[in-house]
């Protein structure tokens, strides 16, 4: 029973790690939002992490398992062609190709990840306080 009480720290801690990774990937997307390349294939493609949470049903009990990274997917949206004939990366037709990062979407994703991280910090803090109060009752 007591070990089950500590599972919340594993779940919240893994969720905080997941949100930190999400923030890092979003920051990478934002940093490359205005980059250009000489071909659509070489243009930076936006990335998104994919997470999963599973349930462990061992011994007829159900307990949460920490958040797991399932992978990082790359956007299949097309790179935006820009006519810039003076750009050294321009192709024979004068086009360069901008990354497919949507900056508004990336900002919303960053705010969401930041708030999710903060929420998990509060879960850890509240759980710690409640466990400490429970231990004080036994004195």
UniProtKB/TrEMBL annotation:
Any Pfam family matching the protein: Flg_bbr_C
Highest rank taxon of the organism: Bacteria
Keywords noted in UniProt: Bacterial flagellum, Cell projection, Cilium, Flagellum
Residue ranges annotated for the Flagellar basal body rod protein N-terminal domain, each copy included: 10-36
InterPro entries the UniProt entry points to: Flag_bb_rod_N, Flagellar_basal_body_rod_CS, Flg_bb/hook_C_dom, FlgC
One GO CC annotation: bacterial-type flagellum basal body, rod
Coarse class of the protein's main subcellular location: other
Residue ranges annotated for the Flagellar basal-body/hook protein C-terminal domain, each copy included: 93-137
Single biological process term from Gene Ontology: bacterial-type flagellum-dependent swarming motility
Location relative to the cell: Bacterial flagellum basal body
Residue ranges of coiled coil: none
PANTHER family referenced in this protein's UniProt entry, alphabetically: FLAGELLAR BASAL-BODY ROD PROTEIN FLGC, FLAGELLAR PROTEIN
Subunit architecture: The basal body constitutes a major portion of the flagellar organelle and consists of four rings (L,P,S, and M) mounted on a central rod. The rod consists of about 26 subunits of FlgG in the distal portion, and FlgB, FlgC and FlgF are thought to build up the proximal portion of the rod with about 6 subunits each.
Classification via NCBIfam families: FlgC
Similarity-based family: Belongs to the flagella basal body rod proteins family.
Protein name per the record: Flagellar basal-body rod protein FlgC
UniProt source species: Nitrococcus mobilis Nb-231
């Amino acid at each position: 029973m007591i070990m089950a009480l500590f599972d919340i720290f594993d779940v919240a801690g893994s969720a905080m790690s997941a949100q930190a990774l999400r923030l890092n990937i979003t920051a990478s997307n934002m940093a490359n939002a205005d980059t250009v390349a000489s071909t659509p294939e070489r243009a930076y493609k936006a990335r998104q992490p994919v997470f999963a949470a599973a349930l462990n049903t061992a011994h007829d009990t159900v307990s949460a398992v920490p958040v797991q990274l399932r992978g990082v997917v790359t956007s299949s949206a097309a790179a935006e062609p820009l006519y810039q004939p003076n750009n050294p990366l321009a192709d024979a037709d004068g086009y360069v190709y901008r990354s497919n990062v949507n900056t508004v979407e990336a900002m919303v994703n960053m705010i969401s990840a930041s708030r999710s991280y903060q929420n998990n910090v509060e879960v850890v803090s509240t759980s710690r306080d409640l466990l400490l109060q429970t231990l004080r009752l036994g004195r």
